[in-house]
Write a structure and sequence with these properties.
The protein is mainly β. Strands 3, 5, 6, 8, 9, 10, 11 and 12 form an eight-stranded antiparallel beta sheet that branches. Strands 15, 16, 18, 19 and 20 form a five-stranded antiparallel beta sheet that branches. Strand 21 and strand 22 form a beta hairpin. The protein is elongated and about 85 Å long. The protein starts with 6 loop residues before the first helix and ends with a strand. The N terminus is likely disordered.
Length: about 425
């Protein structure tokens, strides 16, 4: 990501202010703070008072290093008070370390930072797996080692990368006695200043980042540029993706076009009304153009994907999201079907199928012969019915159905034929 000095923007804003007031260091410093509580690390940031526009999108990285002992992948949990439509964190493992990439993005009015510029972002939970361990945690750079963060304001400008000053390295220790301790060491701020003549970042802005209820499928802000001039990862190209599933199946087939320079692809799904996307599959073979993912029965999904490139430090550079595709999986097979003659009627019953909106009952004279629809039940809660006794009704079979986003029925597979008793 090409860096440019943030004071250029600040100067432009201050030119319009009369009278011109000097800007102090405290007004331009950006600070990251880590506070340890056992194996949990509270993460907070403060942004400069001189940034007069409201920050709606933010990205930063944490580096977790294993000094001694062992640990599982750390987990980042966002603070509920953070007003952001998108809250995502990705973790890349390296040699005895993890890089945690944290992204928040919203629209105008969804502010990551309150008016005072201070925000508790969330908690990083370390996962030591041994009785004795020593682990360090620190802020790291978006594109290098020097601690930095990247933000976008509500006007939707290009992402701006700024150094984080006076950050700390937190060291957490544990022993077989169950006691833990922590210490902190300040990290000097980077003395190298960004080139003031550099072009602004071309990362996507907050205005085209997908929100919770916004199935636009575009990428999160602050996507870094690929390191080195010999890498040709086309991160601005959206993958062309299609999704499908076979009749009666809950297996979703993804097909897509290859993105130049990508190292792999990540697939996401969102279900229900929350719109929260979750990672469901990672393909690390860049020449793959299809994959299957087993989803839940009788469920409606919004699906999307994006390509990634792995940089030298192990972090991932993400491309644009594909367009969102919607798909509803079939319900499971009906089980426990019974058909019994009672006078001039045949009583039918079966077990409930999860999420089913209704059932269809078919009857036939021969087990492997032709069947005809004899009853459609439009409530998933109805688990029994009757049909008139008929010499042609010797065998019965049933299937459940759900409705997709277009109100069309998606049918499950038929159960095994049941003979009338």
């Amino acid at each position: 990501m090409k860096k440019w000095i943030s004071c250029i923007l600040l100067s432009a804003l201050l030119i319009t202010a009369i009278p011109v007031s000097p800007v102090t260091a405290a007004e331009t410093d950006c600070t990251g703070k880590l506070v340890a509580s056992g194996s949990n690390i509270n993460v907070s940031l403060s942004f400069p008072l001189a940034v007069t526009e409201k920050i709606t999108s933010l990205r930063f990285k944490l580096k977790v290093s294993i000094i001694s002992g062992t640990m599982n992948e750390p987990v980042f949990t966002f603070n509920n008070a953070v007003q952001s439509e998108v809250k995502e964190s990705g973790t890349i493992s390296g040699n005895d370390n993890y890089i945690v990439d944290v992204v928040m993005s919203g629209k105008k009015g969804n502010l990551v930072f309150p008016a005072d510029g201070q925000a508790d972002i969330g908690t990083l939970s370390l996962k030591p797996s041994g009785s004795t361990y020593k682990i360090s945690t620190q802020f790291t750079g978006i594109n290098g080692e020097a601690p930095s963060a990247e933000y976008v304001t509500e006007t939707g400008q290009s992402a701006i990368e700024v150094p984080l000053v006076n950050t700390e390295i937190i060291t957490t220790e544990g022993s077989s006695s169950g006691q833990s301790s922590s210490s902190s060491v300040y990290v000097p701020s980077a003395t190298k200043k960004p080139d003031a003549s550099a072009e602004p970042s071309t990362a996507p802005s907050a205005t085209n980042t997908p929100g919770i209820n916004e199935p636009s499928g575009t990428s999160a802000p602050g996507t870094p540029e690929e390191p080195g001039g010999d890498i040709t990862f086309d991160k601005d190209k959206k993958p062309s993706m299609s999704v499908s599933s076979k009749k009666g199946s809950r297996v979703v087939t993804f097909k897509w076009n290859i993105i130049d320079g990508a190292d792999g692809y990540i697939f996401y799904s969102a279900s229900g009304k929350s719109g929260n996307y979750k990672k469901i599959r990672t393909i690390s073979k860049p020449d793959r153009i299809s994959c299957n993912v087993t989803m839940a029965y009788a469920s409606s999904y919004s699906l999307r994907m994006r390509a990634f490139k792995t940089s030298g430090d192990g972090s991932r550079i993400f491309g644009q999201y594909s367009k969102v595709k919607k798909l509803t999986t079939a319900p499971a097979k009906v089980k426990g079907v019974k058909a019994r003659i009672s006078g001039t009627k045949i009583n039918l019953s079966w077990k409930k199928v999860k999420n089913a909106k209704g059932y269809q009952i078919y009857a036939g004279k021969k087990k492997n012969g032709n069947y005809s629809l004899v009853k459609t039940l439009k409530k998933g809660s109805v688990l029994k019915t009757t049909v008139k006794k008929n010499k042609k009704y010797k065998y019965f079979k049933a299937r459940a159905y759900v409705n997709n986003a277009s109100k069309k029925r998606v049918y499950g597979n038929f159960c095994t034929s049941i003979k009338v008793k």
